C-alpha cells in the first residue's frame, strides 16, 4: 500500500498540524468551523481538506496567511472553493501587488513562474486575502480564541502570527525555523529569531509551544536558547 506523502499530528485535542514537502499547515477544528494557518500549494491544501472532510462534515471558516510567499499562500483558492475566507495582514496584500504582477494585470510574476514547474499551481489561481487587518484581528468562536498579530516588518512586510492564548501556542512562519533537535548551534544568532523573541517579551505573550511552518514544534525554551538566553529571567 502506498503511503500518503503527508503527516498529520494533533498537538492538542482539536489543534493539529499537517506536514508535507517541508511545510506545515496548522489547523484548528471545532464543530463550529475550521481555522487554518497557511495553505502551502494547491495540492497540499487539497490533501488536508480531503482529510478534514473525512471527519464530521466540517465547515471551513478562515484561512490565515502568515505572509505572501508561494509555499504559504498559493493554495488559497482551494480553501476559498471550500468556503473559507482568506485573511492576512494588510502587508500581505501589498507584497502580492508588488510580486504577483500577472494577477494584477501586469507582466508575469511569481505565480506564473511557479506554474511553469507545478501542475497544481498551473491548474489553480492566485487568491489574495480578502479580509485584512492592520495591527490585530481576533477570531473567537466561543471555545477558541485566535489572535492574528503583526509584530512589524521582519521576514516580509506583512508577517502575521496566530496566537492562541488559552493553549499558549504561537503559530509562526519564517520568523523562527527551528533547526533539528540535535543540530550543532549555528555560528551566529539570526536577527529574525531575536526580533521574534523580543516581540514575545514586549507583548508579554506567555508562549508555551511554538508551531512553525518550517521545522518541528518547539517550546519557548528552544527559542530562548536559539537567541542565546538560557534562563527564564532574561
Ligand atoms: Zn517566507
Ligand atoms: Zn517559508
Task: Summarize the structure in words.
With 234 residues, the chain is an alpha/beta fold. The chain is built from 8 helices and 13 strands. The protein has helices spanning 42-53, 70-73, 76-81, 90-99, 110-115, 119-123, 191-202, 220-226, and strands spanning 7-12, 15-20, 23-30, 33-37, 60-64, 85-89, 131-133, 136-140, 145-149, 161-164, 169-172, 209-212, 218-219. The strands form 2 sheets. It has a 7-stranded mixed sheet. It is globular. The model has no long low-confidence stretch (mean pLDDT 94). One zinc ion binds next to loops. Residues 67, 69, 155, 174 line the site of one zinc ion (ZN).
Task: State the fourth-level CATH superfamily of the domain at 7-166.
Answer: Ribonuclease Z/Hydroxyacylglutathione hydrolase-like
Largest sheet data? 7 strands, mixed
CATH class of the domain at 7-166: Alpha Beta
- Gap from first CA to last CA: 51 Å
The assigned structural class equals: alpha/beta
CATH architecture of the domain at 7-166: 4-Layer Sandwich
- N-to-C order of helices and strands: EEEEHEHHEHHHEEEEEHEEH
Global Rg: 17 Å
Shape: globular
Major β-sheet strand ordering: 1-2-3-4-5-6-7
Present as ligands are: zinc ion
What keyword list fits this structure?
234 residues, alpha/beta, Metallo-beta-lactamase, Chain A, six-stranded mixed β-sheet, 26% helix, binds zinc ion
Kindly summarize this structure in a few lines.
This protein is of the alpha/beta class and 234 residues long. It has 8 helices and 13 strands.
Amino acid at each position: 500500500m502506498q503511503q500518503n506523502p503527508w503527516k498529520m499530528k494533533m498537538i492538542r485535542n482539536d489543534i493539529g498540524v499537517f506536514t508535507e514537502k517541508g511545510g506545515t499547515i496548522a489547523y484548528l477544528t471545532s464543530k463550529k468551523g475550521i481555522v487554518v494557518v497557511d495553505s502551502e500549494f494547491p495540492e497540499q491544501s487539497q490533501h488536508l481538506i480531503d482529510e478534514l472532510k473525512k471527519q464530521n462534515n466540517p465547515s471551513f471558516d478562515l484561512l490565515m496567511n502568515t505572509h505572501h510567499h508561494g509555499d504559504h499562500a498559493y493554495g488559497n483558492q482551494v480553501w476559498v472553493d471550500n468556503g473559507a475566507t482568506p485573511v492576512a495582514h494588510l502587508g500581505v496584500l501589498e507584497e502580492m501587488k508588488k510580486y504577483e504582477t500577472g494577477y494584477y494585470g501586469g507582466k508575469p510574476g511569481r505565480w506564473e513562474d511557479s506554474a511553469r514547474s507545478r501542475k497544481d499551481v498551473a491548474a489553480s489561481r492566485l487568491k489574495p486575502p480578502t479580509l485584512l487587518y492592520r495591527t490585530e484581528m481576533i477570531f473567537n468562536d466561543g471555545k477558541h480564541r485566535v489572535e492574528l498579530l503583526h509584530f512589524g516588518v521582519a521576514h516580509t512586510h506583512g508577517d502575521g502570527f496566530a496566537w492562541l492564548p488559552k493553549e499558549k501556542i504561537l503559530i509562526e512562519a519564517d520568523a523562527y525555523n527551528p533547526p533539528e533537535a540535535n543540530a550543532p548551534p549555528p555560528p551566529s544568532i539570526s536577527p529574525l529569531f531575536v526580533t521574534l523573541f523580543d516581540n514575545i517579551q514586549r507583548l508579554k505573550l506567555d508562549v508555551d509551544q511554538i508551531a512553525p511552518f518550517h521545522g518541528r514544534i518547539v517550546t519557548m525554551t528552544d527559542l530562548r536558547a536559539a537567541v542565546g538566553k538560557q534562563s527564564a529571567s532574561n
